[in-house]
Amino acid sequence: MQQTEKTPNVLARTRIWYVLILLLSAIVLVRVFYLQVIQHDYYKTAAYVGQMREYEIPASRGVIEAFNGDAVVPLVLNESRYLVFVDPLHIEDVPGSAEALIGVLGSLDRAEVEGKMAADNRYQVVQKNITKTVIEKVEALELPGVGVQEEPKRSYPHGMLAAHLLGFVNDDGEGVYGIEQALNDQLVGAPGQLRAITDARGIPLAANPENTLIEPQEGKRTRLTIDVSLQKQLEDALEDGLERARSESGGALIFDADSGAIKAMANYPTFDPSRFYDVSIDDSGVFANSLVTSPLEIGSIMKPLTMAAALNEGVVSRNTTYFDPDQFTIDGATVRNVEESSGVGERNMEDILRLSLNTGATWLLKQLGGGDINETARTTWHHYMTERYFFDRPTGIEQGYQVGGNIPDPLDGFGLNIQFANTAFGQGMTTTPLHAAAALAAVINRGTYYQPRLVAAQSDMAGEMQGVEPIVVREAVVSPSVSADVRHLMEGAFSQNYRTYGLSGLRSGFSIGGKTGTAQIPNPEGGYYEDRFNGTFFGYVSGESSTYVIIVRVDEPRIGGYAGSTAAGPIFVDIATTLLDSYGMQPRVN
Amino acid sequence: MTKKNHHRPRRTSPLLSGETQHRRHRPDYSLIIICLLLLVIGMVIVYAISPGLAAQSELSESHFVRRQMLAIVLAIVTFFVVARLPLEIWWRSIKVLIAITVIALLATQFTGSGEANAARWVQVGGLSFQSVELLKFTLVIWLAGFLSQRHREGTINDFQRTLKPLAIVLATSGFIVAVLQSDLGSMGVVAGIIAVMLFVAGVSWRLLFIGAAAILFAGSLLIFTSPYRQERVATFLNPQADCLAEGYQACQALIAIGSGGLFGKGIDRSAQAYGYLPEAANDSIFAVYAEMFGFVGVVVVIALLVALFTRLHRIIERTPSMYSQLIVVGVLTWLSIQAFINIMAMVGLFPLKGITLPFISYGGTSIIFVTAAVALVFNISRYSTFSVIQAKQPNKAARQSNKKGILRDNPVKRRRNGRPHYAYPIRRT
User: Fold this and answer.
1) Same domain, A249 and A136
2) How far is CA A16 from the centre of its chain?
3) How do residues B133-161 score in pLDDT, each as one tens digit?
4) Range of B155's domain?
C-alpha cells in the first residue's frame, strides 16, 4: 500500500502536466509579445480607427432681433430639437430594434427603418425634429447602435411675422430665403470640433491627451432695421387691401429715404417659417420675397423718375409747359394714354404725373434727345436707369435670391425708339419694387442713393453689438433743386388725387407725394394681355426729421378702375396713415 | 518526545497519512502572498474602470469597487475558515457537498432572473452566485477521494469501477454546464479537471490515447457537419484577418492588447474597456489589463501565475498522501486551465470565451471559490513527507522503512541541528 501510494508514476505524470503548463505560459508570453511589441503599430492604428471620433460642435445660430419702437425684441430664436440615428455596425437585433424604435417614434415605415439599420453607412438618420419628451423615451430604450443628436431649430416668437424677409433654416442647417440665406455665413458661426477617444457608444472619454477641442464660434446676433409693430400693421394693411382688391398676391415695404433702412417689408401670401416643411414643392414660390426677387414692369410709377432725369439734365424745368397730342407714333407704333387721359391740349409738368400721361413721359424722353427720341435720348435715359437708379443689378440688400431687372440696351436691337419710349412710363423694362423705392428715395432726399438694407447692427467677435452705417452708393443722383422740384410735382399731383385712394384729408406738417402705376402684363407669347394688369403705387411721407418711401404692389387685382389707383393706392394710404398715426412721425414746424 | 511538541508526527486520518511519515510545519505562506498580489491587480483594474463602466449602466461610480471589495473580504474569511478545517472533513462530508452542488446546479434552472446568462446564476435572497464554481470545488474533492481509493484498489483502468462513474459525472455536468447553462468555458475547465486528475491518478496511456482520439473524432465530426461551426473555427483561426474593417468586432481583445504596447497606455487610458470589450471587468479583464500595463504588466501577471502553479507543483511533490496530492493536482488544473482558457481566448489562441481569470476578474463567486481551493492547498502545505538529511547514516529503523526513498526522520534531532521548521524534501534525483 505504502509503496503504491506515492508511486513515481503519479509524480512523473504531475511533472508532465506541470511542464505542459510552463509550455503554455511560454506560448502565451510569446503570443502577447507578438501582439504588443511586434504588431503594436497595427493594433494601435486599429484602436485609433475604432476609438477616435470627430465631433462637430455646432455653433448656435445667430439670433435675429428687431426694433419695437425704441425697444429691441427677438424675432428669431433657437430651440433644441433632436434627431435619432442608427449605426448599423452596432445594431444587434434589427427587427427588434426597429420594432422598439417605431413603438416610441410612431408611424415610421418599418421596411425603411430596418433598411437603415442594415445599411453600409454608419450614420443613418431615422427621424428628425423630435421633442425632448419623445427623445427621453428613445434614450430609455438603450438600444445599442441607436443614437440621439441634438439639432437646433429656429423658433419664432412673433409667429409668421416678416416670414419672407427672414427666410428659414432648412433641415441641413442652411439658411434659405431672406436674411437667413443672405447672412447665412455670419449667422451660422463656425462650428467647433472635438476629436476624442470615445467609448463604443461614441461618448468621449475624458483625460486623454490625444483629445483636441476647438471651441465653436457662435453665429452673429443680428438686429434688423425693421420695426415689428410697423411690420405687423403693414402686413395687416397689405392683406386687407389685397382682399379688397380681390388680388391673390402682392407686397409692400417702407423704406427710410435718409438711410436706406427698410422699416417694414411684406408679401402676401405668406407662410409659417417654423413649419416651412408643410409647404409643398409646387407652392415653394410662396417663400420668395417677391419685392426683391421678382422683377416686373413697374408701370407709371416710372414717370416721376423720368421727370427727375429730364429736370436733372436741364431739358425741362418745373414750370415748363408743352403741347400734348394725346398720342405719338414712334417706329410705326403708337404711344397712347391709357390712364386718365384728357385729350389733346396744353400740359404742364405736374399734369404729366397727375394725369399719368404716357405721352408726357414720352415727350420728356424726347427732350432728353433734343426734341426727338434718338441715340442721345436712349443712352441718357439708359444711363439714369442703370447708373443712377441701378435698376439692372441687385441692390445688395441682405436677402436671398435678390435680382436686378432687365433694362433694354440703348444701342443694340430693333425698334429701340419705341422700346425706350415705353420704358419712360415703366413698360418694356423690368425691375423690382425695392429698386423703384430706392430710386425714388434718392430722387426725393436731395440725391443720395442709399443701398437698401435690413441690418441695423450685428454682434462683433466679443459679442458687442456694432451699428451698421448707411451705405451711400451714389451721391448726386439728381441735384438738390431737382429733388425739391420732383417733390413739389409729386405732392402737387397727390394733393389732387388723394381722395381717389381713400385718404380723407391731408395733414399739416406732413407732405405726401405719390404716383400710381398700372402696368400691362407681358404675354409670354408676345405682346401684352389686354385684360391683366399689375397695380403699383409708390410715394413717400415726409415729416420734420424723417421721410419714408412706401411702395405697394398688387398683382392682377379684380376690381374696377385702374389697378394703381383702386387697388394699390388705398394700401399706400393705409400704410402712410399708420406711419403718421402710430409710428410717431413728427410734423414739420414752419 | 512529549505530547506538547507539536512537531511530533501526527496520525490523523488514514487518507492523509496512512502509515507514511509526515510532519506538520509552517504552511506555505507564499500562496497567500501570490494570491493577494493577483487580487490587488484585479482590484486596481476594477477600480480604474469602475466609474466608466458604471456610467454606461447608470450605476453608482463605486458600484464595482464596493462589490469587489466585499468579495475579497468574503474570500479572505473563507480562506481562513477552509484553511483551518481538517482536510479529511471534506471527504467525509462529500455526500452533503455533492447534494448541495446538485441542488445549486439545478436551482439555476428555476431562479433565473431573466438577464443574460441567467441560467448560470443561483439567487439566494439578495445574493447570487455561479453554481459552476461550486461544481469545480466539489469535483476536485470528490475526484481526489474517488481516484485515490481506486488507485489504492488498483482499479483505475477498470471500466465498471472507475471509468463508468467518471463518464456519468462528465456527461451529467456536461449536460448542465454546457447545454443548460451554455457555459462552454467552464465545461472546458470541468472536463480538464477530470482528465488531468485521471491522468495523474495513473490511467493507462492506452485509454488516454483512445479518449483523446475519441474527442478529436467527435470534435471534427461536430465541426464538419455544421457550416456555422466551420465558420466559427475559421474566424477563430484567423481572427485578425481584418481588424480595421469587417473583423473589427471579432478582434476587440486583440486591439486592446496590441494597442497596449510594451509599457501600456496607463491606468486611466483604457478605451477598450468601455463598450468595445464585452464583460470588461470579468471575462475580458486580461485584455483591459494588457491595454493599461502593456507587455511588462502581462509578464508580471504570467510570472505570478507561474509562481503560483510552481508552488502548487512543489506541494504536490511533498504532500504525504495520494488524496491530498490529487486535491492539489485538481486545484492546479482548475486554476491553470481556467487562466489559460481566459488568456488564450483573449490573445486569439483559443476559441472559448466567457470564463473568469482567477483572482483578477471581477466577480465574487469566482474569487471566493478559487480562494477556497487555494485554502485547501494551504492546509495541505502544512504537511510534508521527508527523507533523512544525513542519508549516509540512517538509523536502523529508518533504513528499515526506507522503501522507495521514504525515510524516517527524527524531527527533534533535526531541530537541534538548527533546521528551520520547514522540511525540505531531498527526493530530487
Assistant:
1) no
2) 86
3) 999 999 999 999 999 888 888 888 888 88
4) 90-358
**Would B84 be classed as within a structural domain?**
no
Q: B297 at the A interface (CB within 8 A)?
A: no
Interface of B with A in 335-364 (CB under 8 A): 336, 340, 343-344, 347-349
Q: Which of residues 71-110 of A touch B (CB under 8 A)?
A: 89
Q: Residue A461: how many CB atoms within 10 A of its CB?
A: 8
H/E run at residue A169: strand A168-169
Between positions 34 and 63 of B, the ones with CB within 8 A of A are: 52, 56
Rounded to whole angstroms, the Cα distance separating B118 from A294 reads 70
pLDDT confidence of residue A101: 87
- pLDDT exceeds cutoff 90 at B348: no
The answer to whether residue B424 is domain-embedded is no
* Residue A169 belongs to some domain of the structure: no
- A540 and A402 together in one domain: yes
Is there a contact between A249 and A255 (Cβ–Cβ < 8 Å)? no
Q: Strands A64-68, A222-227: parallel, antiparallel or unpaired by DSSP?
A: parallel
With beta carbons under 8 A apart, name residues in chain B contacting A93.
none
Q: How far is B389 from chain A (nearest CA, A)?
A: 20
A539 and A445: one domain?
Answer: yes
CA angle A175, A274, A69 (to 5 degrees): 85
Domain holding A32, by residue range, is: 2-38
Three-state DSSP class for residue B243: coil
Q: Does B271 touch chain A (CB under 8 A)?
A: yes
A32 touches chain B (CB under 8 A): yes
B320 phi and psi, to 5 degrees? Answer: -80, -25
pLDDT, residue B242, reads 61
B288 at A interface, C-beta within 8 A: no
Q: Which residues of B touch A4 (CB under 8 A)?
A: 151-152, 154
- Is B387 an 8 Å CB contact of chain A? no
**Partners of A522 in the beta sheet?**
A528
Question: Which of A360, A362, A319 lies closest to A342 in space, CA to CA?
Answer: A360
CB contact under 8 A, B257 and A43: yes
**DSSP summary character for residue A168:** E
CB contact under 8 A, B19 and A197: no
**Sign of the C-alpha dihedral computed for residues B217, B222, B227 and B230 taken in this order:** negative
Check whether residue A309 and residue A428 sit in a common domain: yes
ipTM for the predicted complex comes to 0.84
CATH number for the domain that contains residue A140: 3.90.1310.10
Number of domain units in chain A: 3
Contact criterion met (CB < 8 Å) for B340 and A45: no
Residue A59 included in any domain: yes
Is A171 among the domain residues?
A: no
| Rounded Cα distance, A387 and B329, in Å | 104
- Please return the burial class of B33, using the count of CB atoms within 10 Å of its CB with bins 0-12, 13-18 and 19+: middle
Handedness of CA B107, B113, B114, B119 (dihedral sign): negative
The three three-digit cell numbers of residue B48, written as one number: 480604474
Contact in structure between B33 and B388 (CB atoms under 8 Å): no
Q: Do both A202 and A318 map to the same domain?
A: no
Q: Is residue B36 part of a domain?
A: no
Where do we find the cell 507578438?
A34
Residues A141 and A60 in one domain: yes
Residue A265 falls inside a structural domain: yes
One domain for residues A490 and A362: yes
Q: What are phi and psi of B176, to 5 degrees?
A: -70, -50
* Total count of domains within chain B: 1
Residue with cell 420695426: A227
Q: Is the pTM of this model over 0.80?
A: no
Task: Please indicate, yes or no, if residue B134 is contained in any of the structural domains.
Answer: yes
Same domain, A87 and A29: no
pLDDT digits (tens, 9 = 90+) for B185-215: 888 899 999 999 999 988 888 888 998 898 8
Residue of A1, A3, A4, A6 to mutate for B, most B C-beta atoms under 10 A: A6
